[in-house]
Amino acid sequence: MDLERVIEPLERRGLLRHRPFVELWVGSTISQLGDQCYFVALPWLVLQITGSSLALGAVMMTAAIPRAVLMLMGGAVIDRFSVRTVLIVTAISRAVVVAIVAALASFQAVATWHLYALALLFGIADAFSLPAVNALMPAVVPAQDLHQANALFQGSLQTTTMVGPAPAGWAIKHWGVATALWADAISFVAMIAALVRLPSAPREHRDPGVNVLSSIRDGFRYVLADVPLRNMMLMIGVLNFCTTGPFSVGLAWLAKTRFGSAAVYGSFLSSYGAGALGGMLLAGAIKRPRHRGVVLLVIPATLGVGLPLIGLVPRFPVVALAMAAIGASGGFAGIIMTAWMQQRVESRYLGRVMSLLMFFAVGLMPVSLVVSGAVAAAHVGALFVGAGILVAAIGLVGLVSKATREID
Questions:
Q1: Nearest residue to 388 (alpha-carbon basis) of 174, 264, 254, 243
Q2: I need a surface site. Which of 67, 178, 226, 243 has the fewest CB within 10 A?
Q3: Within 10 A of 240 (CB to CB), how many other CB atoms are there?
């Protein structure tokens, strides 16, 4: 599986000849590369100033909490205003904040509270920008090309997370943290330029008298009334809860106690990333995906086998292969199902539905991390076996649900 199999049908359909999409894709990719500088620079700067892992965890939570709490509000705002405007405002806000911290770092004037403020503002921006990106796509490309456009966007994100951190770390080592932060601030220019040039999509009338809470409640009602959509949301929530903590905490603990090497932990994550990228590219190569409900069930099936294997047979080849298989199934099904949602959901509800999707994807992250930390401390194998059993159970529920099986 290679990128040419994805590019060829895109060119034939004219997707890569569609200037707004190409500019948005390129701008997003450049911005994502810049973000890798931020993801490496911020923890390093926290540790430089405080020397405390507790402070590092607190800074990370400062970003995670507003991201989760405000995610649903972000969807409501997107559905009331222009998606493009929301993305431009969040991108400019991030660029300005990172530039300020970069300037402070250049003069060695960064204080701890500056980093807390940076993390807080990034978390708030994430709550609005994460659902907005998915809500914007149907306005940029034709419906029949959504799964391929999503594959390119998500594939670029996955690629930057694989190739970006190492150069960022090298830059920090040789030129300092400020250089990495300046690179992130400048990278936002590419995304902002692409968004500014993007044609404004026509928006349906919005009642300015409807408050945000009522808008969020209407979004919940919309999802609850759509049985296949509701089932998919619940499944995604369980799947992310059962993987975020085990992969972030349990896998690191396993690498340390079983192998005694951070490089092994990095190899496990790279295996997952490579598998996810392959799954995304495969999804993008499919012209007309069918039986998408069955595709969704591939994820709990793979996790139901892979997670217990990691816990019961903690050997490097087994864990690496299991992580690659899990990543491939998640990458493939994620692209297929995101495109299905973008096609199925009414445009006036798309922002709120996408915010619910992102909430289920990242909103439960703090809980999963805490639970996984407690269980891993008692028995790391039990963490993976228990997560696998829970995932298999939700997969069986989806299997017996006709509404889920018949998603197409």
A1: 243
A2: 226
A3: 18
